[in-house]
């Protein structure tokens, strides 16, 4: 029976499918739409059975369905930044803090860890370091504006569990 809210099957997220097995009729609960833990964490379904005889009999039961979170969200940075560092600042000076949010509903799926991307195209990798837990970025060298006036730094945010997304090969989700 459809209820009055999404959690009680208002949108026909679930349906019943009858099957017969050795003179017994079963009703399997099937999923009609994709389920998303971040939207709805649990459902309460009322199942009603009735006969078609002269004396009409009926019975109801409530089925509780509790979803488990899977790691299907990617950490996303909240903003792109441009920051400045004064030349001559000491090594270890804080430049900025980056922040990424993972919309997964549970730990470790939503735990974000930060990394400086280790690639040849990341020109700032040798000049800055990052606190993996906080996203604070610090200088690794003392800068001289006459040598170079700007650096691009590529940072990656990874979540804390193997991804549930297709073709992820057991790696965490990440965003740059």
Automatic annotation (TrEMBL):
Biased composition (Polar residues): 165-176
Keyword Glycoprotein applies: yes
The keyword Translocase is annotated on this UniProt entry: no
Pfam families linked to this entry: Cadherin (PF00028)
GO cellular component terms, semicolon-separated: membrane
Region of interest: Disordered: 156-176
Gene Ontology biological process terms from the UniProt entry: homophilic cell adhesion via plasma membrane adhesion molecules
Cadherin domain location: 14-77, 77-159
Keyword tags: Calcium, Cell adhesion, Glycoprotein, Membrane, Transmembrane, Transmembrane helix
Gene3D superfamilies assigned: Cadherins
One MF annotation (Gene Ontology) recorded for this entry: calcium ion binding
Domain of life: Eukaryota
InterPro entries, sorted: Cadherin-like_dom, Cadherin-like_sf
Annotated protein name in UniProt: Neural-cadherin-like
Organism: Bombus vosnesenskii
